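Many introductory courses stop at the sequence. We go one step further.
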Amino acid sequence: MSHLDEFTSRLSFDLDDFQLEGCRVVEKDQGVLVCAPTGAGKTVVGEFAVDLALRRGTKCFYTTPIKALSNQKYHDLCEVHGEEAIGLLTGDVSINPRADVVVMTTEVLRNMIYAESGDLHRLNFVVMDEIHYLADRDRGAVWEEIILSLDESVSVIGLSATVSNSEEFGRWLRTVRGDTEVIVTDRRPVPLDQWMMVGRRVFEMFEPGGDRVNGQLMHYIGRVEESEEKYRPLGRPEVLQVLQGRNMLPAITFIFSRAGCDGALAQCHRSRLILTTKEEAEEIRQIVNAGVEGIPEEDLEVLHFRRWRSALTRGFAAHHAGMLPAFRHIVEELFVKGLLKAVFATETLALGINMPARTVVLERLVKFNGEAHVDLTPGQYTQLTGRAGRRGIDVLGNAVVQWAAAMDPRAVAGLASTCTYPLISTFSPGYNMAINMLKMNGLDESLRLIEKSFAQFQADGSVVDDVRAIERDQERLDALESQLEDDFERLGVAGTIDELVDYIETRRRLTEEEREAKKRARTERDKETTAILAKLQIGDVIAVPGKKRPQLAVVITPANQTKDPRPWVTTERGWSGRIDAAGISVPPIIVGRMRVPKNVRHQPRKNTRYVLSEFKRQHFERPKKMKVRSRVAAKYRKAVQEHPVHSWPDRETLVRAAEDYARISREQKRRRRRVDGATDTLARTFERILALLTEMDYVEIEQGQPVVTEEGERLAKVHSSADLLVAQCLKRGIWENLDPAELAAAVSTCAFENRREIAPAGENEVPTDAIADAIAGTQRVWAELAADEQRHRLPITREPEAEFATAIHQWAAGAPLGYCLSAAAHSGAELTPGDFVRSCLQVNDLLEQVAKTGYSDALRKNARRAINAISRGVVAVSA
């Protein structure tokens, strides 16, 4: 009996063809890339590699992108093979690290390779779960470093979500790793039904057995759009009640903001919704109480623990990165056990964590990408809805999109039926990588490895395409130029094509500026509307925009919150209900007051007659118009009007003819920039990095070859986005002579990234002069480094941020959580408890490196003391 036959005989289910094919490749000691939808069971191939290594007496490392996934996989493998056979390494946790099978984060393996660890001996397989993380902007390079640096004898098993360029990725793997099979399946083990919810009605997205949009859905939406009543989507509790009635729970509702998730949870908590039995509620309470042991009572109060636990016992929860990690882990455990029926989550839940649901709900198909609100891509839609359908539990999974005004079901159907999720490399050499590669391989081999990266592989391919496109563009430009010159002569215009193109570009910039101005004006109007709605009192008569003229309404119940105020009003036409800022295009105007008796306040819909009669009796004056006036940038309008082309005869005839010329010229310039960037290869970047490191004495030249110095050996152990800045601070003694809490504050400036900056409550003063001096020294070193990087044409290291310094100093000195969160806010950083804990763990991670690389015994000891001081309460429980 083969190893595979023995392995499958122990399973409680039959393997799919793609799983069997992947396992056969592993058994032949070849590399394999398995691309399959979420929940399809691709991890079985990785688990077979684990089993095979244990049977052979060799080693297997199972890598994951995040600690939570490593912890989960460690426990899964321990259940099958026993705790003595499996180890775990996640940077801050080390369990049985000498085991033949070790689960670890990718960074841990990368560091082991660079340290040339003895634990790499006898390594047979490396499983890279969620290998599509290679496209991650911040951490993707780590995957490529591992793939490029592992010994040729090691078989790499890549497990990926379905990507549209899997063949390209597979070709690269074959180039750098040798024999590698690519196995792709689009088949979901649990089929997915697509639905659209319109109010309380739930329609199938497609006609039965086809890919055409459901005619009944289109007809019903048409009726809703033609109705005079403004359409309002259901509230979250009502949505869950509808899903419960259709046996579609448990459900994950994806909301693309932390505040939105928390708001949804609060909305359900305010309602009478209960989704659990008494027995389930009691079991939840016991799990929750056990999960928060070790967190002080005063910190639990800051975390609003009792209210959060109350929501959990009723069957619903939020899940996002701003939560305390311990709370997030409790939510995950409860959901996996089937005790939670509804989770409101950000899209991070779609990545990695094993939390499938019967139903996935999407409230919106637009998300903020950090710069603008953009439509979901088909790949993102597939990733999110991939959580629907629990293998072995559900026969079908459900993806439910909530319809909103102006949403086109045909566009949604196109999104649901398209699979384009390309894997794009983000690999770029950095200082730590350069030092470690040079130390391991020497210059020539390092350059060869970098040129073999997937980023360079993709760049080389795209350069060929771009060069061909530039040639085609030039042919079209030459033809258009000839045509335009004929038009100039025919119309008797004494001008040039360059002038015409410049005029077109100026008009385009004006159009873009007008569009941006409208967006900005809309944001300001929304803020003003929100502020007005929050202040409205019972009896205020307001004017709001109507179809033909402003409409009057009286406030029956004021708003109960300021973030999303929704006062209850009754209009002069008899409609009664809540209004919000999203449904009002122009800020309302208060035009008077009306007495509102108790019976009207308690039952507004039954007592609209009173309001209607009062409107007729009192004759409130309404504004004639409530119109939005958009403001545009005057300089662009003036530039257009004063441009020489603006006064040409038959100007628009020429403009129409030149539009294509201008568009093709823009595209050609973009392609030229891409080609120029690609030909400035990653290897040249690597050489410029080495030139700077040589100047700074981390590298020296011996017999014409660069060699790592003693200082360089220290830099090799600093794994941080600010690695060279940290090494320079250590080298120049900037952080010496600080006590442990002060050291934590100083180090935090290189580890902390302020994602939600607020205006500081006062001057950003730090607790001690020693901290102030250390931060000033760090800033000074950064300014010098940034100037050097600019001179060498290298990316600029992120500037140190001091907004977390006071908070981490106070925490390390023993202050409670609430005090430290206030200290961060006072300094200009708005942190949730989850943000605070994550930032503490990041500081601890950097302090660990200081403890290994510091120049003095005192600094190394103080780094250890700082780590111990930070590792308490919510931080210790979360770690």
